[in-house]
Amino acid sequence: MSVVTVDDLALRFGERTLFEGLGFELERGELLSVLGPNGTGKTSLIRVLLGLLQPSAGRVVVEGCPPRERCHRIGYVPQQRIFDRDVVLRGRDLVRFGLDGHRWGFARLDGEATAQVDAALAEVGASAYADAPVGRLSGGEQQRLRMAQALVADPVLILADEPLLSLDLAQQRAVVDLLDARRRRAGTPVVFVTHDINPVLHTVDRVLYLAPGSWAIGTPDEVLTSDTLSRLYDTDVDVLRVRDRVVVVGTPDDQHVHHVGEEHVH
Amino acid sequence: MFGQLLAQHFVHTALWAGAVVAIVSGAIGVFVVSRGMSFAVHAISELGFTGAAGALVVGIDPVLGILGGSLLVGLVLGLLSLRGRERDSAIGAVLAFGLGVGVLFLSLYQGYATEATNLLFGSIVGVSDGQLRDLVIVGGIVLVGLAVLYRPLFFSSVDPEIAAARGVPLRALSVAIFLLLGLTTAEAIQVVGVLLVLTLVITPAAAAQRLTARPGLALVLSVAIALGSTEGGILLSLEKSWPTSFFITTLSFAAYVAARIYDWSRGRQKRLSSSPPRRLWAVR
Ligand SMILES: Nc1ncnc2c1ncn2[C@@H]1O[C@H](COP(=O)(O)OP(=O)(O)O)[C@@H](O)[C@H]1O
Ligand SMILES: [Mg+2]
Fold it and tell me: Which end of chain A is more exposed for a tag (fewer CB within 10 A), N or C?
């Protein structure tokens, strides 16, 4: 039984179609990486999976339930946003939100909840700064707390939107290892949006490549080939394997000329 | 003379009224500051003034005008639920227009000028028993509202994206906090006046923010600072007959400066004691 089913999904904003006919299933413990240039709808896909955005067509089911009904916890690590320096919030408060921040009233002083928060903090290695003001922590430390927040409620699915952005290599590695360990141990499938496949290449099961107007899904060896990407972009694209790294040359967005909100002309 | 004054009924009423307003303002201030709504507070209070001036012209209780003006603006701003710069400019535009209308109302109003001065700068010693009762009722509504909304409100203030993903209704909460803010402002205007509402809603919370990163403790400190400034200000104005609002603003500002100095010296100690210095992340 798959955890996530995406069936014939289409997303349009006005005249513009981000993707259509998108379909895939996610099995327990699977790590799917969503790749593609800016503005192709990676974040929008995550928002559909979260139930924050209604697709134009098709459907999404997470453990037998449409995401907008919120039958199940979905762990979400958003595209990185640094906290305001003066925000009145400690690391443990941020993680606690992941447990019961959406409930009415005050949070009770409840031993079980505290234990869950402490366990999540320990899992991501953030115990040392659990009581520090969040706004004064580094980007990498904040990102770890976000991971703990996503993990604390024991989610059925983890969605991470460019969690590696602005992290150094060691920190990138730590984030990837954490998600990898979680899905192996608890069987939680992970959708991992990234600009650069290389930090997750060693562990990713499948890749969903979103190009402007078309997409492809499969194992890295199937998708990250000159043939597939040339077909997606409708131009000559070369995929090179240099040591353990994948280098893509010749995509129209090589110089990151795509900006969010810009119309693509093809 | 001070002792005699303290025994007076109107002084008791003033102290109670001040306490109610301070508690409510200090509590909501924590959310206002964490949502970056200081400018909105200012706008809501100035338009409460427009409402009051309008009420004076048509000859009804100015407090009703304050409530009407504050709630209306609160509702509009809440429904728009704008963010950042767009919100600032929208508020600026609404605020300027509302003040213009207020000026017209004042020029139409034929009554005593002191009524208008009281609106601008407050008149806590003029609070009647009936007004005190109304303050308690409205204050109670705001506190109950804040208590019920506490967690999702706080969650959506500091982390709106994740809160939305968790099913927290952001827009409804935005409307709710603006309406509660409208009520709070209408209360505070009667004590410190239109121009000084910020001294009870923003300053104590901003000071508390400097003192702790614990949300619950920040709430308590903010209320304590608002309460101390208000009651202290009223007592000082009995001793020396300068305006109450002057003493209240001075005390709350002193608390704010002290909190900043405390925060700064604590940060400095940390920097001195922790070597090698931790590398900071570039903030875009
Ligand atoms: N709510 C929306 N209304 C209109 N356009 C939108 C909306 N959300 C996203 N878009 C557009 O959809 C495109 C894809 O955005 P996004 O999903 O953020 O891309 P990515 O994460 O792949 O960079 C962008 O051009 C963006 O402007
Ligand atoms: Mg994105």
Answer: N
Q: Is residue A166 part of a domain?
A: no
All residues of chain A having their beta carbon less than 8 Å from the beta carbon of residue B280 are: 138
**Residue whose CB lies within 8 A of the most ligand 1 atoms, among A16, A43, A258, for a mutation test:** A43
pLDDT over 70 (residue B24): yes
For residue A118, being part of any structural domain is answered with yes
Any domain includes A13: no
Contact assessment for residue A74 and residue A67, using Cβ atoms and an 8 Å cutoff:
yes
Closest residue on chain A to B167 (Cα): A102
Angle in degrees, 0-180, between the axes of helices B203-211 and B9-34, rounded to the nearest 10: 60
Domain spans, chain B: 2-266
| Yes or no, beta carbons of B151 and A89 under 8 Å apart | no
Ligand nearest to the CA of A163: 2
Number of domains in chain A: 1
Tokens of B116: 């208008």
Distance CA(A229)–CA(A251), nearest Å, equals 8
Reported as a single tens digit per residue, the pLDDT across A148-203 is 999 999 999 999 999 998 788 998 999 999 999 999 999 999 999 998 999 999 99
Residues of B in contact with A102 (CB under 8 A): 151-152, 155, 163, 166-168
ipTM value for the complex: 0.87
